[in-house]
Every structure is written in C-alpha cells, then in structure tokens.
Amino acid sequence: MPLPRLLPVGLALAAFTVAGLTRSPAQPPAPEAKAFAADGVAYLKKHCLGCHGDTRPKADLSLTRYATAESILKDRKIWQRVQDVIHAGEMPPESRPRPTTAENDAFLKTVGGVFDHHDRTAPPDPGRVTMRRLNRLEYNNTVRDLVGVDFTPADDFPSDDVGHGFDNIGDVLTLPPVLLERYLAAAESIMDRAVQVTPVKSPERWQGGQYLEPASAKVPLKNNWRVMSVKDGGDAVETGPVHTQYQVPTDGEYIFRARVRAETTGSEPVRVAVLAVCDKAAPGVASDAEAEKLSGAAVKGLRPFVILKTVDVTGTEKTPQVIEAKVPANIGLKRMAVALVKPKAGEPAPTLFVQNLYLQGPLDTRPATHRALLKCDESKPAADKSREVLGRFATRAYRRPVTPDELTRLVKLAESRTAAGESWEAGVQFAMTAVLVSPKFLFRVELDDRPEGPDARPIGEYQLASRLSYFLWASMPDAELFELAGKNQLTPNLPAQVKRMLADPKANTLVESFAMQWLQLQPLKNAQPDAKLFPQFNDRLRAAMFQETKLFLGEIVRQDRSVLDILDADFTYVNADLARLYGLKDAARGGRRQEEFVRVALAGTNRGGVLTQASVLTVTSNPTRTSPVKRGRWVLEQLLGTPPPPPPPNVPELEEAGKKTTALTLRARMEEHRKNAACASCHAKMDPLGFGLENFDAVGAFRAKDGDAAIDPSGELPGGVKFAGPVELKKILLTKKDLFARCLAEKLLTYAVGRGLEFTDKRAVDKVVAGLARQDYKFSALVTEVVQSDPFRLRRGRAPQ
C-alpha cells in the first residue's frame, strides 16, 4: 500500500501533500497559520459548513472545529479525504453553489502549505514496527542458512496474509494454532535430518575383476582374476590400468582396497600405483613426468588423477595381497584405478592379477550439517561441549548474542536427555529443536531498553544486521554482518554491505519476493484466458511469462542498472514460446532447447519494460478480452503510485457482450460508461492509459485489429497530453520519473520495514527519491538510500497519548 496520497497527478507540488499523523504537531510559522486561519476558514464557511456544520453534519463530519493550522495537523487522515474529494470535484455536491477552479486550487495550496512545512520541520518520527514472525519464505531461507538442510519445511505452513501489498507485514502475520503445531513438527523434522543421533555403518562398494573397465567382450581373465600385463602395442583392455566408477559425496574420506597378486621372472618386485581419478583442480594431481612412469594404454584417458600410493606386490596365487590407500576428501573423486608401474630397463614384463576393487566410505557417515553444527573441542567435558555448540547455534538462531541465562537453560535441556541415558548428540539435538520453536527464532524480536521513550534513536547493530539481511536476502545475517555488528561497525559500512549483498545470489529474493508482489503478478498463477480465443496460452507459456519478468528484473538488480529501465528498456529475455508470442522470429529459431531463455534486443520494436511483458498484460486482462480499466489502474497504482479512489456505490459494471468485443465497440462502451458523472473523473485518468496498450491482446500478443475493427491505441491524459500507442505512452511515463521513483521508493520502504507507511514517512521518502535522482536512478542507490533512511535505522517508543 503506498504512502497515503492527498492529491493526484497534475497539481502543483505545493498542493501535493503527503504528510502524517504526529505525536505533537509543531507550531506552523505565521504565514501558513495566518493563511489557513483567514483564507482557509473563509473557504470552509462559504462552501463546506452548510453541510458539515455542527447541526446534523453530513457523513457525521463537522468541519467547524478546524479554525487553525494546528487543528488540521491533528486530523491528517480526515483532511486527506477532504482534499481528495475537493480535488476530484465530488464536493460540494452539484446541488450546492460550486467553487471556481481557482478557489479550489488556492484552498488546496493553503492546506498543502501547512502540511508541507510541518513535514519539513517536525522532529523525525521513524514509526513503530510490530514484532513480526518469519513468513514462509523467511523461515525456509533462515533454516537453510542456519542449519543447512536441503528442504523447505515451511511449504507445509498456512499461507501468509498480505498487508499493504506484501506478505512480510508485521500487523497481519498472525499466529494461528495450526501454525504452532507445524512449527513443532518442522523443528523436529529439521533436526532429525541435521543431526545423526545413531551412527550409521560406513557404506561399502566392491567390483569383481571381470567387471572392471576397460571393458570388452573378451576380458582377459584367469579364474575370475582380471589379468593386466605390460605389453608393447597392447590395447587398454590388456594393459590397463583397470578401474571402476564411484559416484560419492565430495566431503568425506574413504578407504580403497584392491586384492591383487603378481607374477614376474625378473629380480625386481612388481610395483603398482593406486590412482584416484579426480577434478583437475584437486591438490596433488599427477604431473606428466609422474604419469609417464605408469604402464597401460588407458593411462592418458584417466587423467587427471592423484597417485595415492605406490606399493610392491608380494602376493602370490596362494597368498593374495590386499593393498590399501586412504582417499582424501574434496578431490572430486570420479574413479579408482590400479596401474602397473613400468619395470626398469632390462626387466621382463610382469603380469598383475586383480580379483576386485573395494571402496569404503565416507568413513564419517554423519551428515555435513551434523559435523558443522556439533563441531567443538572433543577433549572438553560434555557440559563444556554443549555450551560451545549451543551458544554458537542460539546466537545465530536468535540473530544476536545469546545471554548467559538463555544458554544455561539450553544446556540443562540437553543434560536432561543425557541424564535419561541418551547420547550427548541426542541431548544437543533436543536443545536445538527447542531453539527452533522459540519465539526468539520464530519472531524478529527487537528488544528496546526504552519502550516508553518517544524520541527517535538508532536501533542496535545486531537489529540493523537483521533488518538488512531480511530486507535483501529474506534470511538471517551471515558471518560478515554478525562480525561488523559485534564491532559496532555495521552502520558506517552500510553502503559497502549493500553492494556486497546485492552481488550475492541470495539477493534474487528481491525479485522473487518484493518485485513480484509489487507488480501484483501472483494472479498469473491462476489466470485462465479463454482457450478458444487464445489457444496459444498454456501452463508452459504461463511459466515463461513469469520467468521473463524475473530474469529481466534480475538483470536490473545484478548489473545495477537504472530503475527507469523498468518503465522502458531495450532488452528482455525470451524462450521459444515467448519469442513466437512476441513475433521475434530470430529468437524463435535456432538449436536451443524449447525452454532455454536468451537475452534479446528490443530496439525498433514496440516492446520494452514490464508494461509490455506478457505477465503484466495477462494479469490486467479479462479471460475473454483486454481491460483498459484494469491496465490503466495498474499503471496508476503500481508505477505512478496515484491510485484512483474506489468506485462509487451502485455503479454498474461494464456489461460483457455475448459475442467477441471489438476494440471499437469496447472504446465506445467505455465512453458511454464515462457519461456517468460519478465515473468520469477516475476513468479520464485510467482509460487512456489502458487504451494505449490496446494493441496487446489478453495474453500479450501484438495485434493491429480486434476482429474486423482496427485498434485505436490513442489517448489523451488530463492536461491535454496526447499519445498514440505503447511507445509514446512509455515516453510519457518516463517524463513522470519522479512519480515513478516515489512510488517505487514507497513500495520498497514498506517491504523493507514491514509496515505500512504513514504521513510521517514523507520526509524519509523525499530523501530517498532525491538521493536516487542524484545517483542516476541506479538500483543500488535506491536500496542504499532506503537502508540509510530514518524508518529503517531508527526506532521510537510509544507516543504520548
């Protein structure tokens, strides 16, 4: 929900009032106060008090008590509505003498001047944020970063309520009983996956000699022993090395064994090398010189590899030998092999017999999450280990240092399990489960040492770290944010941290969560355009529409482009389905997969920016036809932040015809609808914007005709601004970049602080917009200005009553 607006587009800035409820209105300076006491009150007496006096006031609203500037400052919400109806021409009613346009403008300017001066001079008021729980996205992301589990437990939670357009607003994030049950079940499931209480036996894999590679229809065998020899000109099947594939995790140690024996007529022992085929970046990869010492036609094809061990084979037919080598972690193991080492010059060629290859591991079967969470000094007593492990875990889970009392209670919880005969791991797992159902984890708690103090002051550094991370990542702070907060160095490093965090892949949450809600694209999930009229629409195209917008906005975030690209840009992303829908023939051809997206240039086309993307055009249409009203309203609400007021009661909807509606008849019917005086003022703003996009059908395909009628995409906005078609419409929108920047700033600040904006936030929004303009409208500048604003960095206690 945008910051409450008092006057729509087109009025002078002096009359554009966006200010707020205050705790103690500042005394306006004499010029503004005198102007209202004289001219403002005179206007009320002449045009308003006849209906809104003390005797049976219309709408139960008496305006007689508003005789001073201070009085209207105390009732800003009422005066927001007063200004709206006067500007819209709704009041005075037509049955009463009507003020002239000049009288209305002068009155609105007088009232606006009072509010505008107050907003510039009043003490800062950062507002109050309701303590809010983690929403589903934040819960999943926080569990991922805290525990490291590979699933999304919050998917089973009830849907989050939406307030002011977003699902992270504290006032609407309630806690129904069913959610409490899901929290407990999720916490138990998470810790069962993360911590392995009962050790699991290390897996074993072996491969018989006859099945080793290199493979052939005639593998050389002797009593099921694979035979490998040194033979000039021999192929890989004969000379080896023999090997087999192992698909294993990369973070564990393994033991490799091979049962072998050898035969030779020479005086030197037969030597073999154990090879671990691995990533080329693994430490200790064999050099050319080391590989040259090995025999076998398959040596070259196995590279890169690490030579783990070189041993003499002493085993015989009666007493075979088992050779063993430890395989290190994190080398990217792909295969294990055994190779003969070339004999010394003059020595006869030996023969090696391999019965099987065997791999055991990982030797530590605990999951990586277990090893990370329970990492500690194993030499300490159990109680000290618990304090080390649980202190680290609770500090990260609570997003602040755990207190001694909190830690003591957690250690006692763990000890209650060990006292009952369970393992130390089981006790720690139980205490960690308790942490995950604690309000200190489930809620973003910002403790205040002065809850009654009305003065604005900075929030704590750890609280700032949480606000920043949940704003940009929808997750908990990482180690660097924690470290800076602990040193009280986060505030002076905010701009640098914004740059760092926006470069992180986790910043994609700004697209997935913020942008998709701001643009109100969620209804696309359930959109059902008429299958007969739009046969090209299907679930695959629906998914492509979503993906185009996400990739487009993702580039703006990732490459720190201007936010004005959202209005109009010379590129987008399409796959084959979207390319066909858009008529981009070059992008529709080629050898790419059907679902693969590519970046395409839009210069010279009628597309560019979100306004001409199929996702937006589809959600702002009806199932059988386009809707100029929906599209125009969407532009006013989501891009310009100047939503029209709700329609008057008892105004009939535009009737749907029983046949396909042509653009011509649709425009004619809309003009008929606007003859209703109650509808005219709002539709005069919405309809032209919508008709400017009429060349795009209900699923976003371009068209010149609708049925037999040529489409007229022209329009005229209030103030006599004329245009024809989407290209000229976008140029007009770019001339209103200040309105767009303000709208975007309001939306982003709402999302960032988790509450609806109040009048008192106007000064902060003004600073964000001014800073954004100074920095060429770069996306990072917008985010930096938001996180440095008073509502984001400051807090206050309760206001005096």
TrEMBL record:
Residue ranges of domain DUF1595 in the record: 387-446
- Enumerate the spans annotated as DUF1585 domain: 720-792
**What positions does the domain DUF1588 occupy?**
607-706
Q: Which InterPro entries does the entry link to? A: Cyt_c_Planctomycete-type, DUF1585, DUF1587, DUF1588, DUF1592, DUF1595
User: Which superkingdom is the protein from?
Assistant: Bacteria
Residue span, Cytochrome C Planctomycete-type domain: 48-94
The record's section on Pfam families has: PSCyt1, PSCyt3, PSD2, PSD3, PSD4, PSD5
Report the protein name in the record: DUF1592 domain-containing protein
Question: Lineage, please?
Answer: Bacteria, Pseudomonadati, Planctomycetota, Planctomycetia, Gemmatales
